């Protein structure tokens, strides 16, 4: 352990109080002999007392990271090493900053005043920018635009450039610009290949125009707060030196979640004042380089890890910077976070002290053993092993279910059993990989009467996209539902704005009729402009057609048709925001949830009961959230459903990011396990509906990466009528021969070894990631397929299913479609036509929706 008053290898400036001096000793005595150090373990105390030079604190889950960070600040202040205004302490959330101030006040026995530089990256950058706004062509009272204002401004620019905003949505451009800013790229630094992906090569020009327009409006967006601060520092060495001299200590929380722009911002501030000024002279885009060896330095166009970026090349010692983080909990790569920032800390800051906090104060031994063994399969990590001095506790359980419904039933049974044993619902959490998984649990909990809360987002049926879809179905079911009709009359955009809706309301009130009837009357008059009148008439005709189809079409297929023909699915397909894919998944899950109801009316009645279930804020409730939302939280009992290939790890992530994506998914699994204090229970389903199609799934590769000594295979408590636990007779898993196949993974072999009469001595081999152990087999001799239906159609405007009837059209016929316009039939499959439309491209439609031209 490092002594608190050890001699620093980095000499302190003359004006800085030296640890161990009279003033420092008097201050320490006044603080009661550093009471705040009591209770720290040796590693924590070393992290607190090592004040000089660069320090990286690798803090595993539950090892007291926040306590170390706040105690370190208290120690700096108590020892007189710096004034509160000379400490830069950066967090990721305002909540974390407030919590840190509160803890400091408790430690020092007084309110911590005068710490203006304790806050988030963006709040601190905003404060710096307002003090020097004119140097970046802004005024000190500049406005920070929210997302809606940003989208509106981009739409204006697209219109000015004659860019089709339907093909190239403003939201997609906003996402690209945000990504560039997260990487510290100004318009002139965006690679030409990336700029060309939008609007046939106009992306870079639009980005430049957007930045120019922001200056005219005296505005900045969220990304500009960091980007413009970096530019301010690089173009004005005297300003940079001012802040470098001011901050004697820099502390950074959650360093593994920093993106490139945040990294560049920190690197500039963490240099010694003398070297930074010299290296930043000249061009504002000049890199910080070494005069001795010419090694590349800090260039915003580069990504971390692309080159040698060592500060040591400047010839000056680094500042007293302490970064706290956990490379095993870097799970926000999709938001631009670079785990490489923390992996390269020792390279960026030569001579850095790395202190590992490995004693966990949260979880039991078996949970930590499982999490630690799993994460060792990652190559991109600095390495540490969590341990506890407490009891081993219960083993992590792995349970297989037949399908997702049985999975939800089984977890519901286990939660009720925990309740009977005296466990509080507030100590129970279900962590899912994808938000659409929540729907099954929500419905199950409503049936059981179990209160629950969704953390990090609304309940499934309260999500915006679900409410929109339900609104369409409600209007079909009841044309007098004014609230539903008003919600979707202009969703997606049809040119029916507030003025049109107000006109409909006025007409409805005068005649005392519903909005739908008022719309019918208004389209027959000249009160609306021709374009709006045509859009409204088209929507009314669509509803009439959907209402007629309701009598002859299954309600699940009707929902698919409505979402496709209304353009609602297409709207989210064109949306390039981070959550668009999740919204599409939720829509597919909504359609799937309708299958268990006899008709549309019964489904909507069920939804009203679910939506009505609102518990008091202080009521005991099960917490339901995604794994990403769970970071930083902890519960006694954690359920982890959906551990299957394709779902977890996510196939989308693997396809887009390869090995890097797999390692981030494994870190996500590590985070999920370490949220549990006493019990961690993993579930996987043998069959799951993925994108509307029943799929036989393979258990996640992560299961075989768990240590056998810390894992117990259990049987699902949610058995269905096929036979199973919970009063339904023997479990179908007792007779594995009925599957016609068995797993060859070590996890499955361990499961078989525990079953009565199971065959022994089978070889333990790995399974192919592409081949399901049940591929081509029907586990129940054909019974499973009796409720099976074709793929869902939430993939395009309309993917119709052939009824087997012969179409009256022939290939080459010229036809007209009310939405897509004129086109020519190029292929026929029963009553399903493939049509090449003149303007809309190639579409698949049912022949009843077109007419000869």
Automatic annotation (TrEMBL):
* Domain UvrD-like helicase C-terminal: from-to ranges: 365-632
Q: Which UniProt keywords apply?
A: ATP-binding, DNA-binding, Helicase, Hydrolase, Isomerase, Nucleotide-binding
Residues covered by region (Disordered): 277-321, 744-789
Q: Where is the sequence biased in composition, kind Basic and acidic residues?
A: 300-310
> What organism is listed for this UniProt entry?
Bradyrhizobium aeschynomenes
Q: What family does this belong to? A: Belongs to the helicase family. UvrD subfamily.
Alphabetized InterPro entries for the sequence: DExx_box_DNA_helicase_dom_sf (IPR013986), DNA_helicase_UvrD-like_C (IPR014017), DNA_helicase_UvrD/REP (IPR000212), P-loop_NTPase (IPR027417), UvrD-like_ATP-bd (IPR014016)
Q: What spans are recorded as compositionally biased (Polar residues)?
A: 277-289
Q: Which reaction does it catalyse?
A: ATP + H2O = ADP + phosphate + H(+); Couples ATP hydrolysis with the unwinding of duplex DNA by translocating in the 3'-5' direction
Q: Where is the composition biased (Low complexity)?
A: 749-772
State its Enzyme Commission number(s): 5.6.2.4
Superkingdom of origin organism: Bacteria
Provide the protein name. Answer: DNA 3'-5' helicase
Q: Which residues form the UvrD-like helicase ATP-binding domain?
A: 38-364
Iron-sulfur listed as a keyword? no
Q: Which residues bind ATP?
A: 59-66
